[in-house]
Amino acid sequence: MSATNSTADLQIAQTRRAALRAGGLGLFGLNMPGLLRAADQSQQLKQRAKSVIFLFQWGGPSQLDMFDMKPHAPDGVRSPYKPIASSEPGIQVGELLPETAKRMDKVCLLRTLTHRMKNHNSAGYYALSGHAPPADDQRLRDSLDLCPAYGSVVDRLAPNQNDMPTFVSYPHVIRDGSITPAQYASFLGKKHDPFFFRTDPNDDGFHLPELNLPSSLSAERISRRRELQQLVDRQSRLLDYSGAARGFDRYYDKAISMLTSSRVRNAFNLSKEPESVREKYGRTTYGQSCLLARRLVESGVKFVTVYFSNSIGGQKIGSGGWDTHGFNDTRMYKIVDKYHFPITERTLPTLLDDLDERGMLDETLVVWMGEFGRTPKINNNESRDHWPQCYTALLAGGGVKRGYAYGKSDSRAAYPDEHPVRPEDLAATMYYLLGIDPATEIHDLGNRPFPIGGDPIHDVIA
Fold first, then answer.
1. Among 111, 116, 119, residue whose Cα is nearest residue 413
2. In terms of Cα–Cα distance, which of 356, 316, 318 is closest to 337?
3. Distance CA 268, CA 290 (A)
4. pLDDT at residue 245 greater than cutoff 90
5. Residue 409's beta-bridge partner residues?
6. Whether pLDDT at 246 is above 80
7. Most buried of the four, 27, 128, 146, 216, by CB within 10 Å?
């Protein structure tokens, strides 16, 4: 992207943001719709990414052991893993990720993500919505007072016009006690919920029961049934009285559309992939989920969220997420060596290569991140605790720079030294790359306005 185009896009975003802020004042006699039309008519944002694959690493990976190595830090801070050179000069990676290191010339690292939420549910909500929760409370529960998932916002503002769903998420509902908010559409309404499933893509004969018609029921027959149901709904005036019912009705229509679409069924048909490709991704739930994500964006899905695990991990060995405090001798450096790193080392490089070889990486934004990082100081259990003040996210494709590290942490990867990045800024960057103005506002049930994002990180955009 030229400097001229970058400046123009920035000016457009700033113009629209100013219009949104001034809308309530009736500036120059224009009301809000008029101001928005005036801003839109100047020029539309350039869409750089057609799709996003959001790989959510529930539990919080350690920045110090993967992508922000501090080999000169003192004992007790420095990772027990040695840093190794990568394909991009100046970027080092932990020694247990040699294949990932070979792809760092395709990657953009954000090394200074920062916030203050130390509990999983609060931090998870922040990471999945781009909005700070009302409090850092582990008991934070999903409610219509909280903001929707990224994919639901995309479905609201730039929905697919083909047979494919806009937003798909799988194969877990994540929680730490209560279900973590921002996995669904919240106040945007059920019609903007993701197409979600829990079926394991690694199961033999994986298929989605939701997308299979009974043998006795043809697509034509189910369409006639739907028409009859709509007639009954109109006569009972149910839809006039219940917003929730309207949401379910539109959600049902979307489900029927997918049910009768051969394009959707083909996208989910992993058996069409050569066995050699499936083996490259790894025959694990997460590995096959990443392969399925590639198939979905290839077929036109705009936003795919893949959850690494349904649980934070904690004291589990061989399953669960990245939350490794070392309680009861489940030490971090015994667990991640044998489970988290090997899975990551197999799937992430394969996904990036697969997208690149198919000519899809430039138009597909891959985001790999957790809800926070880990403490600089290694605890008495030879592990690390929660640390939201500074951690790393990995971006690739979709219009971001290749072989680039943005932001600089201090000598212990404890706090940003240069260019702190808030979750809302990362959210704004994703929307911006999708061609959606991050200054756009959505309104909750009380008609309170919420800008969908913060400030795009223009320096990471190619």
1. 111
2. 318
3. 12
4. no
5. 416
6. no
7. 128
